[in-house]
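In the laboratory, one determines a bound structure by crystallizing the protein with its ligand and collecting diffraction data. In a computational setting the workflow is compressed into a single prediction: the sequence and the ligand go in, and a structural description comes out. We illustrate the idea with guanine.
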Amino acid sequence: MTQILDGRALAKQIRAEIAEEVKVIEAAGNRKPHLATVLIGDDAPSQAYVRNKMRSCEKVGFDATLIKKPVETTESELLEIVSGLNNNDAIDGFIVQLPLPNHIDEDRITLAIAPEKDVDGFHPVNFGRMAQGLPCYKPATPFGVMEMLRRYEIPTEGKEVVVVGRSNIVGTPMSLLLSRKGNPGNATVTLCHSRTADLTAHTRRADILVAAIGRPSFVTADMVKEGVIVIDVGVNRVDDASRERGYRLEGDVDYQGVFEKASYITPVPGGVGQLTVVSLLLNTLKAYKKEVY
Ligand code: GUN
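The predicted complex, in structure-token form:
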């Protein structure tokens, strides 16, 4: 029997835990945790993600501030905003939603964010601390996957994990977290990418397969072994005239095809994506409590 890893239910449970903590914080007469989000331009998926983040803050009782600026915003204007947030004691953590317009250097912006407020975990200081197993903010999506594995009590020690996709925000940190000492962790990790020769030979060995490629239904049934645990990180918009909004969301895994072979699988939507936002809340709470720095 294939078991569905229900990100929606898990996210709801974690939000309830956070909300409970916020109540205790408020009852003690303290201010609430406060997350700020900077959104530049009008990229449609980014707007949807940011809406979702703001709504999630509300649900758990955090304060949330959205700083929305037009696409023409210059790099130096954005650096000013970042500097203002770094120095604003009323903000515990903040994120600059990516992608940024082409005229802004994302790396320069990421480097300008104070590591102690970098609740996305994108700054090299946080990334380096993560790689060394030091206290840090973990990037939201890999953190969410780790929470999912931990709470579903899926063993990872000694397992063959294959991560497909080596992005800075998902594939690479995922491979580090799963190979590190800990639970989840202690896995033998293979990181595959667009230049990997004979990808299927690798993916068929996987006890746990993490798909973070960004291509709809890329992983097919012939690429996995019987009993595989499938973590689908993909959130792809696929044109679909039968839907009112004109598209549907599809993961990086051919869900229908792979389902029968999998022992556990995350759906899209309703899987990993739900936990990504919750991870951001968990990091914001850590920032508030000064647990990392
Ligand atoms: N764009 C896509 N995912 C993310 C994320 O986790 N954080 C930010 N800041 N931008 C994103």
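The chain has a mean pLDDT of 98. Keep in mind that any predicted model is a hypothesis to be tested, not a measurement.
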